[in-house]
Amino acid sequence: MNDVNIELKGRKAIVTGSTAGIGRATAEGLARAGASVVINGRGSARVDQAVRQMRDAFPASDITGIAADLSTTEGGEAVFAQAPDADILVNNVGTAHLRDYNGIESIANIPDEDWLGLFQLNVMSGVRMARHYLPRMVRKGWGRVVFVSSESAVNIPKEMLDYGMTKTAQLAVSRGLAEAVAGTGVTVNAVLPGPTRSEILGDFMAKQAAANGITQQEAEQGFLKAMRPTTLIQRFATTDEVANMIIYACSEQASATTGAALRVDGGVVRFVA
Question: Which of 101, 133, 163, 248 is catalytic?
């Protein structure tokens, strides 16, 4: 069968960190494909707003929201209580500390709380979610789990070493879980975006542009030349472009793709395999 139309009617998806950015674009794409979608964010106001907007945009889809801080065990428990089962899990929630790099002293000055805080949100949130939902998917004989990692997992940024560490850890968790559920009908993959006009990096670029009296596009080009000169598309990706890969990994069509690190990095990483 060569049907490329992604159809997810009857599937329930949870997308963490989905009130904006890549998570929001992913949630919208899954809803467009017919899945019922659970939106998640830390604050109830933003979650409620996202749910309202998505219900308006996708009236045929069941859209619900759960406000919970997934950097904590309690946040995970709140999600499990309100959404005990899911067919699709997209571990998207995460953040980074954007900072200048001025040599080894910059790294030496990153405090423990930055390392540990990022690890809790970027890594342990996905571990907790997978720990709950994966066994249930295995029992049903179908499931899709995607960890939204980054090209920073393999192209470690000196200025964000703590962030790079968490993104590499996600690759280890994703591959290990994929091997653990081999032959069950459940797949686990990681998706590696590159520079993207997401909320975090997009807002940072907008502030850089304002501070320097240039356009955001000029700020982005400056960032790419200085920090990611190997980009082949020579621009930031859109959140929809990244979401397209995530949605594919969640689809029936991706049934032979598992244990993979799928790059949507605009060619930044120079590995060919």
Answer: 163
Statement: 12-196+238-264 belongs to CATH 3.40.50.920: no
Q: Please, is 236 exposed, middle or buried when counting C-beta atoms within 10 Å of its C-beta (0-12, 13-18, 19+)?
A: buried
Q: Does the annotation mark 133 as catalytic?
A: no
pLDDT in tens, 140-182: 999 999 999 999 999 999 989 999 999 999 999 999 999 999 9
Query: Cβ contacts of residue 15 below 8 Å, gap of 6+?
Result: 23, 26, 27, 30, 37, 38, 39, 40, 90, 92
What confidence tens digit (pLDDT) does each residue in 156-166 have? 999 899 999 99
Which is nearest to 142 in space by CA: 86, 92, 64? 86
Query: Residue 1 pLDDT more than 60?
Result: no
Helix (H) or strand (E) holding 108: helix 104-108
Name the strands in the sheet holding 36-41, side by side, starting at the edge strand that comes first in the sequence: 63-67, 36-41, 12-15, 88-91, 143-148, 186-193, 261-264
